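Memo to structure team: turn this sequence into structure tokens by end of day. - J.P.
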Amino acid sequence: MLELENVHVYYGAIHALQGISFRVDEGEIVTLIGSNGAGKSTTLKTISGLLRPKEGRMTYLGKDLTAVGAPDIVKLKLSHVPEGRRVFANMTVRENLDLGAYQRRDAKGIKKDMAHVFELFPRLEERQAQVAGTLSGGEQQMLAIGRAIMSQPKLLLLDEPSMGLAPILTRQIFDIIRAISQEGTTILLVEQNARMALSVADRAYVLETGRIALSGDAGELMNSPEVSKAYLGGR
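Reply from structure team:
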């Protein structure tokens, strides 16, 4: 479904991604783990068109994404839930969700997906008239994911969905991620909580300073002494 080949990205003189290559197959949850500054968020921003690679190639559903801008990438059913949620703080929950469907014209389908979002996140239905900036961090994360679902993504990019959340809310968010996957949406997940990410993923890639250091089955990496020591608090 998605493949990156030898992708290089720079922030000015900083070589942020140094020739990374990986793939995401349809129906998978694939996670990118690594320390702060490893290039995880940069990778998602590059895939969604917010950054442009200087070298390399990205293909999605057979289409070359390398020179495609972010507005056109959204039309390809690829949605990005950014780090920090980035909800529209002065708009209501309902208005934020409506904006997720701004490119759609199927009124019945939009209504159906809105009901589905409220089924996944009952708290959003209760607060649909509430201004988004007054929601808790967990509720804003739910809203950011719900807004992405409203665009009917085939591939969902999730950047640090558990950041700043209490453990009980983190578990709830990851339960929802599993449910979204089981409904057929492919997911590329960036997550600081490596243990939680590996517990839901099919495959994983470990990024270190802009390069992929390890890759493999998520369960195998969970049990890897090297990964355990570096990212899971093991010895």
